[in-house]
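Lecture notes, part 5. Sequence design as translation. It can be helpful to think of inverse folding as translation between two languages: the language of shapes and the language of residues. The source text, in structure tokens, appears below.
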């Protein structure tokens, strides 16, 4: 897990580029790479039946500064209204906000099956 956190820190500090994590062709590569690494960190600490499908952060790639900011975000509002288009053929079974494992704020987690 520490290797993933070190990689996330390098990404957020600009020492590595997002394409080193996720490749090319993404609309917001830093956000996408951050979400990918954060999902990996979260799943490394969770049991098999509690794994998350994705973690959502702000467009900067950093976690939301507060829990209320996360809950006011467009992504969280769409999840609350059942209008989220993150998963084409999956049903969202759970979502919420939790403190970031990296320690920079709060993340939205989504579980889908």
């Amino acid at each position: 897990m520490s290797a993933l956190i070190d990689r996330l820190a390098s990404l957020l500090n600009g020492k590595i580029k997002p394409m080193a994590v996720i490749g090319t062709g993404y609309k917001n590569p830093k956000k996408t790479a951050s979400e990918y690494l954060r999902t990996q960190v979260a799943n490394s600490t969770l049991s098999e039946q509690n794994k998350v499908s994705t973690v959502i952060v702000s467009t900067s790639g950093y976690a939301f500064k507060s829990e209320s900011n996360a809950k006011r975000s467009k992504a969280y509002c769409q999840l609350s209204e059942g209008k989220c288009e993150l998963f084409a053929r999956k049903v969202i079974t759970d979502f919420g906000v939790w403190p970031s494992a990296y320690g920079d704020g709060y993340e939205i987690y989504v579980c889908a099956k």
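The translated text above is only one of many valid answers, since several sequences can fold into similar shapes. The first helix runs from residue 2 to 13.
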